[in-house]
Amino acid sequence: MSNTIAALVVSLPERRDLLTEALQSVWVQTLQPVDTVVGIDPRRLGEVANMNRLIDATDSDWLAFLHDDDIWHPDHLAVCAEYFDDADVIVSRFDLIGRPWSSIEPWHTDFEDLRRTNWIGSPSMVVARRRTFGRWCNPTPGRRWVDWANWNRLLDHGARFVDTGRVTTDYRFMGGNGSWSPR
CATH number for the domain including 12? Predict the structure, then answer.
């Protein structure tokens, strides 16, 4: 079985500095993706449309998502690849940059907990098997975040989730690039 990886990077036009940093984190991966597909969204089509456009642009077996405000550590893809035989959705842990840990949902060890709370920091922590993931869907009632709706869709369809137990990403909030602000 082939295990090709595509890095799918979403961005907005005004965030070119963040995009440059995110792309640099792709270029230094110890396991390089076969495709790096960048989707800049000047018309504000939204994350679902932008991500689906990127999925359509590759035929890789694995989809590695990256938001422009996040960074992969150099071993991110290599660590995730260790789980290709045992999982459909691989989730790495993250360092939180720019906001206190007390402001986010703590890490859970049971993926069934995703049915009641979204504790995966960002799609940037996730590498998913293409044939299992399919396409991004819009949020369902009660699941206001796009990524949360998709994690639940995958759980509903029996996807095998695995936690790498290793920090391989930076989840960044740097003023103006996220919904959180200090009180």
Answer: 3.90.550.10
